[in-house]
Amino acid sequence: MNQKTGLKLRLKYPFSLDNRSGPAYLKIAVPESMTAGFTIRPGGFSNGSFASANMSFQVGDQYVKVGLNRQALLKGIGKDVFSALVTARQVHGNSCLTVTDRSPEKLLGLAQTGADALLTDQPGILLGVLTADCLPLIMVDRKRGAVAVVHAGWRGLEQSIGTVVVSELGRRFTVAVENLEVYAGPAIGRCCFQVGCEVVDRFRQHSVLAGVEGWWQERATGYYVDLLEIQRAQLLAVGVLEENFHAVDICTCCNDLCFSYRRDHAITGRQLAFVGIREKLIK
Ligand SMILES: [Zn+2]
Questions:
Q1: Which residues of the chain have pLDDT under 70?
Q2: Distance from residue 249's CA to the centre of ligand 1 (Å)
Q3: Gap from CA of 283 to ligand 1 centroid (Å)
Q4: What total of structural domains would you count in the chain?
Q5: 34 C-alpha to ligand 1 centroid (Å)
Q6: 187 CA distance to ligand 1 middle (Å)
Q7: How far is ligand 1, taken at its centre, from the CA of residue 254, in Å?
Q8: How far away, in angstroms, is 198 Cα from ligand 1 center?
Q9: Would 194 be classed as within a structural domain?
Q10: Disulfide check for 94: which of 53, 76, 159, 272 has CB 3.0–4.6 Å away?
């Protein structure tokens, strides 16, 4: 296991670093009945390009190492509560998967289902998305006891995945948007996310970005977009309260405590954004 001393991260509430055991993660201050966070690189068992807490089975890392990393995380956050981590096959779309059946065979099968957002209101189900530059989001409604985790790369954002999840949470679990807390994890920042001009042009069609400052920039080296600002603008436009949108604002490409697809030339591990309900709210 890697040394985990001297991690340099500037975090402020509601985020704090938990590196006591297993994969280090940015812990989110959610109600005690829930758990949520964003893993980073230190504290795992993987080697080489995947060192050390790679959480994805799909990137060429040794299966057994990824299994150990996932088990160590589960152990750290409460293996007695969450027996398995549920991830889907991420496809850069905007489809949502609602997970309410806790039977192991059902949960296992979901790994092959194409979806970029997972939702639940059931305790004991730990939901996750894997990223290495794309923006991970966690959504929590403490009143209704419903949660979601979202994989939002530029393609997902272009298909407004965040707002699709907000309406799905409303439809499935009667979540009121003004009660929704949104947490945005580490992603490639405006400093590093260079794109072709066609990407800027596609976002220009989005009326919610009209009048929003700084979501794109033209520099001597090319065009840059700011995934975090685009996501913030989209969610505020559908009623998420500004004070309920929380971002760690760490660039994966600038910070070597994170995996970065672009910086590491595509051969790298994945961070995990995770959220789960420990116990059912008594309504
Ligand atoms: Zn950067």
A1: 1-6, 280-283
A2: 10
A3: 44
A4: 1
A5: 31
A6: 9
A7: 4
A8: 21
A9: no
A10: 159
Domain assignment present for residue 4? The answer is: no
Can you tell me the distance from the alpha carbon of 146 to that of 283, in angstroms, rounded to the nearest whole number?
Answer: 13
Instruction: State in Å: Cα 184 to ligand 1 middle.
Output: 16
Angstrom distance (rounded) from CA 272 to CA 254? 18
Residue 115 contacts residue 89 (beta carbons within 8 Å): yes
How far apart, in whole angstroms, are the C-alpha atoms of residue 187 and residue 127? 19
How close is the Cα of 262 to the center of ligand 1, in Å?
Answer: 10
Q: What is the pLDDT of residue 49?
A: 97
Phi and psi angles of residue 276, each rounded to the nearest 5 degrees, phi first: -160, 160
Distance 114 CA to ligand 1 centre (A): 29
State in Å: Cα 54 to ligand 1 middle: 20
Alpha carbons 166 and 237: distance in angstroms, whole number: 11
Distance 189 CA to ligand 1 centre (A): 5
Question: The whole model's pTM is what?
Answer: 0.96
Domain range for 250 is: 15-188+243-277
Please indicate, yes or no, if residue 3 is contained in any of the structural domains.
no
Instruction: Supply the pLDDT for residue 5.
Output: 46
Closest CA to 203 of 192, 191, 215: 215
Domain annotation covers residue 230: no
Q: What pLDDT, on a 0 to 100 scale, did the predictor assign at position 281?
A: 59
pLDDT of residue 6: 55
Query: Ligand 1: distance of its center to the CA of 195 in Å?
Result: 13
Residue 182, SS3? strand
Which CATH number characterizes residue 117's domain? 3.60.140.10
pLDDT for 282: 54
